[in-house]
Amino acid sequence: MNFGKLLSYEKDGNLVRFHFEKMDGRIEVITDNILNVFAGFVSDAHRSKAIEGNKAAAAKFSVKEEEGAVSVSTAAVTAKVFDGFLVDFYRADGTVLCRDYRGERTPIVRASEEMKKLLEAEGHAAEEEGDGGFAVCKQMEGDEAFYGLGDKTGFLNKRGYEYVMWNTDDPAPQMDNFKSLYKSIPFFITLRSDAVFGLFFDNPYRTVFDMGKESDAYYHYGAQNGNLDYYLIAGNSMPEVIGGYTYLTGTTPLPQKWTLGYQQCRWSYMSREEVEGVAKKMRECGIPCDAIHLDIDYMDGYRVFTWNPDRFGQAEEMIAGLQKDGFKIVTIMDPGVKRDPGYPVYDTGVEKGYFATTPAGEVYVNAVWPGDAVYPDFGNQEVRDWWGQNQKFLLDKGVRGVWNDMNEPASFRGELPQDVVFTDEDEKADHARMHNLYGHNMAKATYRGLRELDGRRPFVITRACYAGTQKYSTAWTGDNHSIWAHLQMAIPQLCNLGLSGMAFVGTDVGGFGSDCTKELLCRWVEVGCFSPLFRNHSAMGTRYQEPWRFDGETIEIYRKAVELRYHLIPYYYDLFFQGEKTGMPIMRPLVLHYEKDRTARSLNSEFMVGDRLLAAPVVNQGEREKMVYLPAGKWYDYWTGEEMEGGRYILRDAPLDLCPLYVKAGTILPVWQKQRYVNEIDNDSTLFLEVFPGEGQWDHFQDNGEDFTYRDGAYNQYRCSLDADNVLRVECVHNGYEKKYGRVNVRCMGRTAEAVLENGSCRILF
Ligand code: GLC
């Protein structure tokens, strides 16, 4: 980037415009904590797909000249702008947040000069490093740890690694050296002992993030194309930074309650009989279950919005029958439309110009499951509306959730060329610009369509994402394998997705590719039962991995984990209710709540659910004991009730049927009684609470669990508080939902007590 000297600047509303010798740049004040740095290399507007609406609040700020720089200061942050559009950020108390790096970059040496000469002499050019485009290079100030960046492989702390944001469907087993996966979320949180902040580089082109791999002196992010457009998000803590990021890009909306239940999938259950058989077996084994997913074979020749008439005849009847027994049906939906003249979806799309084209204007054809296929142009509002309306086909059959797959977009005949023509709202744009947005726009189209047609909270699952997709969809981590390394990866991967705004996420429990073993499945369900999206899925040709495919013990262990999940659903639901306001994820790395604890910074095999529960699953073959790190404070072993002091490692027995689980002192957990599916029994008469001694408070929500009326106040909010003398008070602080608990039942360390709620309040001594 070559801006040259700073010549002049002026204030313009919430912007400060800077005029450099060669180019202009600007700083935009969004809120006290959020500043945007922008230079319009290709357009003057953000054209953001992640941020919708104008987020710039009327924050007060001042501009002044000092020591060769112009500073823009809000109450919380100062940006100092120098020649060359170098920008340094400070907190109001003067602490450095981050500064642009002024030194020489030192690219990694991959071949000696002699080697390069030799290669050249033999006609092979040595591969050169280089991002192309432009990069922002920040100085490493000290003990930075980096979190976020979406679904990248590897470990929790991203320091020392390099990643590429380019949505990628690579079926090979994903290991730590993978640079890209299905999602591109160009946001990360930097944590140092003296500071925390987030950086969101809102550029949908292929971007590269080097988190200190090239050098320990700096880290950088850059793009091949597009604008310099990034947000510095300050805050006093990681939760505040996440609050800032999700203020910009949106939070995960409260889901329908049943979507928190267990879901069973396989590529594919091939017929009505097979699906009904799976449902029956679930009930026979006593394993709670709320949904069965239909993979691509429910369609007629892989044509989207069709239904196989032979193997899945009378779909409505099948779905209604399953529904009576508490099962919902979720269907897969790929973007690729079969090239098949005479097939209405294809014909309409061609006629209306809804598919991506070659630069010469021909409909672009590649291949996915149906063979030759064309790609809906989701960047076009009209195409999104059309796609949204098409969901009616599924809703009419009784389908309750739509699983969007292959939307990187995937292609079997090589990647789509960069110049394939798509639409970016009001203008044409190439694949290079729209690639990372494809899944996002498909999810948005699906969500909007379902919302309009159905009125219930849409349940969409997507594989590909960009920043902000959380507003429209849940996500799963794609095609993992039944290998221990992928169970281990699941924890940091889901935690980093959560820190990147994606609160409703999960992995394929048991692993998708390769053959699962009994032990791996048992350990995986002990992680999966805590992940927000809880689905077992496996690939065609692999060993079947429903729990009964193994032995009786597996069924027992599986049931125990799934029952624990159902027990905790009210707690999960409360977390989602809060998360819609705060942006906080459900599954959290310990560092999110224990920033100052250096051990918590890189714990890869433990996590928290909310800020009350700590799960420490076994993720190694053969292990029957687990080293558990408990942060400072008083904890209870969930299984034995034993009280323990944190701030240390403990060694916990962890037989195959047990995932070590700890609860913070003073916790009030809303729980459910046993049920085989969500709301099989009446959950609205008695509020069941599980309490762990100490002082604490919890807000519990009650609503119909299905539609959007809670946004108009149709919910109850119960404030529960616990004091040191084992007195629990419950008070209804918001009453907007017609049903109301009549009783409160408290269980604490084996003792129970019950009380009647009078005028929404009660006091229980237990
Ligand atoms: C992709 C999906 C996988 C699905 C398969 C067949 O590989 O990631 O979940 O089962 O396609 O549709």
Written description of the protein model:
The structure is a single chain. 19% of the residues lie in helices and 30% in strands. By secondary structure, it is of the alpha+beta class. Among the domains are: 6-249, Immunoglobulin-like; 684-765, Golgi alpha-mannosidase II (Immunoglobulin-like). The strands form eleven sheets. It has a nine-stranded parallel beta sheet. It has an eight-stranded antiparallel beta sheet with strand order 1-2-3-4-18-15-14-11. A six-stranded antiparallel beta sheet has the order 34-35-36-41-38-39. A hairpin with a 4-residue loop joins strand 3 (24-29) and strand 4 (34-39). Helix 6 (381-390) packs across helix 9 (438-454). It is globular. The mean pLDDT is 97.
Fourth-tier CATH superfamily name of the domain at 6-249: glycosyl hydrolase (family 31)
In total, the number of strands is 49
**Spans where pLDDT lies below 50 across 5 or more residues:** none
Alpha plus pi helix count: 12
List of distinct ligands in this structure: alpha-D-glucopyranose
Tell me the name of the CATH class of the domain at 6-249: Mainly Beta
General form: globular
Beta-strand content estimate:
25-35%
Q: State the major sheet.
A: 9 strands, parallel
Overall average pLDDT: 97
Distance between the termini: 67 Å
Q: What's the architecture of the domain at 6-249, going by CATH?
A: Sandwich
Q: How much helix is in the residues?
A: 10-25%
CATH level-3 fold name of the domain at 6-249: Immunoglobulin-like
